[in-house]
Amino acid sequence: MTPSYKAIHYNQGAIWWDETTQLPLIHTKEERNTWTHIIIDEGVKAVPPYTFFGCEHVTLITMYDSLERLENHCFSHNKRLVKIIWSKKLKYIGYCCFYGCLSLEAAYIPSSCRQLDYATFEKCIKFKILSASLATKLCYGVILDTKLLELSPFEGYERDGSNNHSINHWIKFRHNGQPHLQLHKICFGLNPTIEKISEAIRLQGNDSMWIKDDIGVTAFEYLVLNPTCDMDVVNDFVLRILDFFR
User: Fold this and answer.
1) Residue 242: Cβ within 10 Å count
2) Is 1 among the domain residues?
3) How many domains does the chain have?
4) Separation between Cα atoms, residue 152 and residue 55, nearest integer Å
5) Are residues 140 and 23 in the same domain?
6) Are 104 and 76 in contact (CB under 8 A)?
7) Closest of 127, 131, 142 to residue 94, by C-alpha
8) Which of 149, 176, 203 is the last residue of a domain?
9) Are residues 133 and 86 in the same domain?
10) 109-113, 139-143, 156-160: lowest mean pLDDT where?
11) Which domain holds residue 150?
């Protein structure tokens, strides 16, 4: 008989239904599809590769603060994953760790993390927000094929000789205190206002306030893609751009 949907725990190198019922690390797809909440228990320092690959009904992952490493493909293809509660001591996120998590929209990486390996959030097609410390190294393709990449692909966007998308320069531009990073934070924040946007553009040295160097267009892209943005702010922004051309 297949168990009902419930939370499962990872501890001592094994997966548990509860404190006394241990499951094998190799599961059928039907068994994995009964899991909705993955809890990485206190005392666990690392989760091995592919441990929770393809858990299609998981919506929440909770990590206790002892966790330091997530290895490659730990949670890839968790298609319904929408929320992650991170360990405050996490240091490393392995390659393709959240690859293909189709419902994930945001990740707020703890400041303790020193590296996101390549393609961490690749193919997360709804992914819009990546918040990470400036000390966190972002490797190749971390946000490839996500909504975040679509926001402003012209900034340092290029192709390498193998015809793969190369976004290293683009990520550095976004991530190392460049002007657009502050603009991104304001426009994609919880309460964007025209006043805050104007000030960010003014500090960047843009005399025209809205148009020069496509900054106005970039801000507009951020605003319309922000799911929490009030449409009055967008409309006000458009009116100011139109006034500029009159």
Assistant:
1) 10
2) no
3) 2
4) 32
5) yes
6) no
7) 142
8) 176
9) yes
10) 156-160
11) 6-176
